[in-house]
Prior knowledge:
The structure is a single chain. The chain has helices spanning 3-22, 26-35, 39-49, 444-449, and strands at residues 72-85, 96-112, 115-127, 140-151, 158-165, 187-195, 200-208, 224-231, 239-254, 260-276, 280-293, 296-310, 318-326, 336-337, 362-371, 379-387, 395-396, 402-404, 414-428, 431-442, 455-466. By secondary structure, it is mainly β. The longest helix is centred in the first third of the chain and has 20 residues, at 3-22. The protein is globular and about 65 Å long. It starts with a helix and ends with a strand. The relative contact order is 0.11.
Amino acid sequence: MTTTSRISGAAAVHLAALALTASITPAQETTRAAAEPAPQAAQTLAQVTQKPPEPSRAPLFNRANESLPSWFRVRGEFRERMEGFDNAGFTDPRDDLYWLSRFRFDTTFTPSKMLAFQVQLQDARVGKKTVGTTGAPFSAPFDLRQGYAQVGSSTSPFAVRVGRQELVYGEQRLVGHVSWLNAARSFDGAKLTVRGKAFSADVFAASLVRILDDEFDKSGNGNLFAGVHGTTARLVPKGTVEPYAFYRHDINQTGEAGASGTLTGTTVGMRMIGTLPASFDYGVEMAVQRGSLSTNSSEAWAGHWQLRRSLTGAGAAKLIGEYNYASGDADPADGVRGTFDHLYPTPHDKYGLADQIGWKNIRHARVGFDFSPHRGWPVTTSYHSWWVNEKRDAVYTAGGAPLARVAAGALHSHVGQEIDVQVSRALLPSLQIAGGYAHIFPGGFLKEATPGASYNYPYVMVTYVFLAER
């Protein structure tokens, strides 16, 4: 075939294509364009019509309650904490590092809006501990921690709860569950709650549950704790007032000069919290005590004053300043006990993360700074300084036990200083990690009463909630 023939053939094909194109009407062209979108338009359409991703859900195991009837709820919790210390009793070397494992299983039955039953089983164990006790509060073998019936709801004018239960009031400086400990506290008793539009109050009578190794935990044994605790938001603008009165009776308690006897005492006090201008808020609590211990009378008082300010800007920073006071015993032979009794508190981290100092015979100053350098990573830092009020009295631990004493009376009142830092993070709604470190610099009082070595306390903790999301 010649070159002219190839050109003529190509021209014929081209003319046929032009004729076919010309034969398409404008309406047909519009229909074709709609039926065959451009590649970019097709991609955009696919993006629009694509289903949005489903929100993440908790693992199936943590959604057990979705498959259960609404009147039956379950919750499980496992907590593992590694903690330790250097120089226990401010004596070098007395070091330890151990594991605290705690398992809880809760069931709640709510056959009607006005009737509920709660059961909580707990098993707490300690491992690798070599210094000091391995019993309570580190270990609490499998037992019933809570088990009560409640008539009335959380909003009804009246509610009655009877059985083994927690008692928790205010910041828990005097009455709380002390859940930081492996062997957390509970009471056997009855509580009546009365609610009105302007005021609510709890009236209770109970007995502390004693944790026993090889038998069912029991209350009684001469212990009685009763009281009334009220709450109202009508007395102070932008504030809440909580008046209270508690009565405690217990046997085999140590009085002046080491004498053992019966303790009876009444604690009357008030807590007040609220907000102030310029992003400030405050907390105040004061209490006085009267009673007897063995053959001695008792007269004591304590106070807590705190001021906080939220700072503007990123990080949700907050400055905290506080002062705490608790009276001590000036003369251990005068027949009058002056040491404040902090009752049944949750004292952890209130007077220092290391929990070496409690709210008895103490003056305590704290400056704190809370912030979140990264979202979801809150950091708490604190500086503490303590002084004993009475040099012939002891300095007491957060649990209330004597830590150190100079029998003839110390020359110095300054106990020491502590610096601590803590951080936590919720990795999932059901999984949280936390850690912290505290260091105590002994002051003159501790150097007189002990060898005076510095004290360190680190911890790392993981809490996993299962069967429920949190």
